[in-house]
Specification:
Layout lengths: L9 H16 L13 H8 L3 H11 L9 H16 L4 E21 L5 E3 L15 E2 L4 E9 L5 H9 L8 E5 L6 H10 L4 E5 L11 E2 L20 H4 L7 E3 L2 H8 L9 H6 L16 E22 L4 E11 L11 H19 L6 E8 L7 H9 L1 H7 E6 L9 E5 L4 H8 L12 H8 L6 E2 L8 H7 L4 E6 L13 H8 L4 H19 L7 H19 L6 H26 L5 H16 L35 H13 L3 H22 L3 E3 L5 E3 L5
Parallel strand pairs: 3-7, 4-5, 5-6, 6-8, 10-11, 10-12, 12-15, 13-14
Antiparallel strand pairs: 1-2, 1-9, 4-9, 9-11, 13-15, 16-17
Helix pairs in contact: 2-17, 3-10, 10-17, 11-15, 13-17, 18-19, 19-20, 19-22, 21-22
Bound molecules: zinc ion (ZN).
């Protein structure tokens, strides 16, 4: 996973924990909010084991397992053998991908008093992990004055220019965050003539260094969208930033920052440092000179996706996919192997269910991805290779990357899965209070609402499934931040001491993940509710309409949402009728099959073959990342980009109108996929309805 991180203070965490324990003691005799839907679900729930999950995590994190390395292959084999030892059919799917590794780096500061400081770029007492680096950074060197660039947003450069600071030729020091990806931050700096970039992360361990990729986009750079390119092809090279960069520790960054003079730091930036701000006044350039060297190499290496397939007994050609990446920058106890440990435990519990006579109605596929950290490479290559199959057969994809970073549930989903997710959280015990269900604490933490985020981000393996293939998706984690993110401190010890000492949160994640999968795999009618989707779309339209005022008409979207809403309500009626109709005659089965297909395929309607403007690979027009990272809109990315450009340059009304038209067409496509285009006669014969094609 890659994103900006803030720490949870351990003291605060323990205080919260004690308060919650007290609270739990007052609420002893509580009944379940709702009970599991089937014997399989009950058995699944009762078979969780924290010591087993802990043992899996211990095994997975014994050594670092960076993608493309021999130790990474041994972790893949561990997962494969685990699946096989449980009697689950398992296989690997390998790809050759262009990965990137460091060979040499150095950094020294030359201060005005004549002293020279050589920074230690590795982390203390961790010799077996890869030195901190930015994957796909070009090699290079610079000897130049240091300048502070804040987060590297457009407005940060405007503030610097207003103070008369010329960043050209300097070594830029960047604070990671403000919603920019590493690639965007480095690319912005390069575009303005910065010679090399140092990047640090606030709030983690002072000596920890956050590794990460600076490649743009997803998947193997040599095979974008399935095409095969050569190394050195301009289409490959343009995905890497034009100047070298590397990450440094917060301690190193503060040493440089404390020595800068020149223009005064804007108040807004200083405030973001909190109480320590008084230490940092200048942004440079200089007088401190930095001597920067980074040498890296790009290598084609084999990556290994591992799968366990539990074949469906009635609808084998419908797939419910659970996925987590396995590769890690270092030991990966949180990112991603807390998720891997949970996935391995789900496999164990499913095999237990199978021995008790259960087999799923639909096929369940457990996916263990490789090379996510380099840019979702394993999952993206697999999705591209299986695009047609997934398009016609994938019911839903449920991703868990960092299963446990700390306390508290955080979830994102496509809206038709909201109800299912909420129902399941009412059946799984909360890990942090003895007598509550996940649902209760989740809602209490969000002022009485079940807060489900949407999936416009591109920070884990759900992105190719939803944004390229249009598969309904969920992404789940416990805890929002952890200080060891992408550092050598992301180890089993940290998990045992801080993240999840009793491994109860791991068991809860596995419980939710597995129960959702059981419902998706076993419910005769898919547990999808498109009324939630209609409500969300209406919300987005209202936000847009406030933003655009009278200037641009949203009538096409209004009409399309109306059509979609009608289809969603009609489908809901149909679901209710078919649910009570328990008969197994051919006509009922046919109608149920057709209904399930419509429920599955409606999400694909939001895809557009042209994709987002300038980013054709991203095909989903409702959810996707905005090109403008400072845009606050988290839906309709094409429209959002049009609005951003219009605000900056003006004269983009036609573009906005065009994007509005494309979004309304997408909503119409989804509505027509969802709508029942056939009518059934009393005798169950399927008749076509000429009015609705
Ligand atoms: Zn991750």
């Amino acid at each position: 996973m890659f994103s900006g991180k803030n720490p949870t203070h351990p003291l605060l965490f323990f205080l919260t924990l004690s308060l919650l324990t007290l609270y739990a003691l007052h609420h002893r005799h509580r009944h379940p909010i709702s009970s599991p839907s089937s014997p399989a679900a009950s058995l699944f729930l009762s078979s969780g084991s924290n010591s087993t999950v802990a043992a899996y995590l211990r095994q997975l994190t014994l050594h670092p397992h960076l993608a493309g390395t021999p130790l990474s292959l041994s972790t893949a084999l561990y997962v494969l053998n685990h699946f096989r030892s449980l009697g689950l059919p398992a296989h690997t799917s390998n790809f050759s991908a262009l990965l990137s590794y460091p060979s040499h780096s150095s950094l020294s500061a030359h201060f005005t008093n004549g002293s020279i400081f050589n920074f230690t770029l590795s982390e203390p007492a961790r010799n077996d992990v890869v030195p901190p680096y930015h994957a796909y950074s070009p090699s290079g060197a610079a000897h130049a004055p240091a300048v502070f660039l804040n987060c590297g947003r457009e407005r940060d450069y405007l503030a610097l220019a207003a103070s008369g600071v010329d960043v050209r030729g300097c070594v830029g020091l960047l604070r990671r965050g403000c919603g920019l990806s590493r690639h965007e931050a480095v690319a912005n700096a390069a575009a303005l003539g910065v010679a090399a970039v140092l990047m640090y992360t606030e709030g983690g361990f002072k000596e920890g260094v956050e590794r990460g990729t600076v490649m743009e986009g997803l998947g193997d750079p040599l095979s974008p969208g399935g095409e095969r390119l050569e190394e050195g092809d301009p289409r490959v090279v343009r995905r890497f930033p034009g100047v070298p960069s590397m990450p440094v520790s917060e301690a190193a960054a503060e040493r440089i920052l404390g020595s800068l003079e020149g223009a005064r730091m804007p108040l807004e930036w200083r405030e973001s440092f909190g109480t320590g701000s008084r230490r940092f006044w200048g942004v440079g350039p200089g007088p401190t000179m930095l001597n920067f060297t980074y040498q890296g190499e790009q290598k084609k290496e084999t990556i290994h996706n591992v799968f366990a397939v539990i074949k469906g007994s009635e609808e084998a050609d419908r797939y419910v996919l659970l996925g987590n990446h396995r590769d890690a920058w270092t030991y990966g106890a949180v990112d991603p192997n807390s998720g891997t440990a949970a996935l391995l435990d789900i496999a164990r519990r499913f095999s237990l269910l199978m021995r008790s006579g259960w087999s799923p109605r639909r096929t369940i596929i457990l996916c263990s991805w490789d090379a996510e950290e380099f840019g979702m490479i394993g999952s993206t290559e697999w999705v591209e290779q299986n695009l047609l199959n997934l398009g016609s057969k994938a019911v839903a994809y449920f991703n868990v990357d960092c299963a446990v970073q700390g306390p508290g549930l955080f979830v994102s989903a496509t809206p038709q899965l909201d109800d299912l997710f909420v129902e399941v959280t009412k059946q799984v015990k909360d890990p942090d209070s003895e007598n509550e269900y996940v649902y209760e604490r989740w809602v209490a933490a969000n002022r009485g609402v079940n807060q489900i985020q949407r999936l416009s981000r591109v920070d884990s393996d759900f992105a190719p499934f939803l944004q390229h293939a249009g598969v309904a998706s969920i992404d789940l984690y416990f805890g929002i931040d952890f200080p060891a993110y992408h550092t050598a401190f992301d180890s089993y010890d940290w998990m045992m001491n801080f993240g999840d000492p009793l491994f109860h949160r791991h068991v809860t994640v596995a419980g939710i993940w597995g129960l959702v999968a059981l419902r998706l795999a076993d419910d005769p009618i898919l547990p999808f509710n498109y009324i939630s989707y209609a409500t969300e779309l209406q919300k987005y339209k209202n936000v847009l309409s406030t933003m655009l005022g009278e200037s641009i008409s949203l009538d096409p979207i209004t009409a399309a949402i109306q059509e979609f809403t009608t289809a969603a309500y009609e489908t809901d009626e149909e679901i209710k009728k078919l649910r009570v109709d328990g008969s197994k005659d051919v006509s009922t089965l046919l109608r149920r099959g057709a209904l399930n297909d419509r429920l599955m395929l409606a999400e694909r309607g939001f895809l557009d073959p042209e994709g987002l403007p300038g980013r054709q690979w991203l095909k989903h027009l409702i959810y996707g990342p905005c090109g403008d990272t400072e845009s606050k809109i988290e839906f309709f990315p094409g429209i959002a980009d049009g609005i951003s450009e219009h605000r900056k340059r003006g004269g983009e009304e036609a573009k906005i109108r065009h994007e509005i038209w494309r979004v309304s067409r997408a909503i119409q496509r989804a509505a027509s996929a969802l709508r029942d285009n056939r009518r059934y006669s009393q005798h169950g014969r399927v008749c076509s309805n000429p009015n609705q094609i």
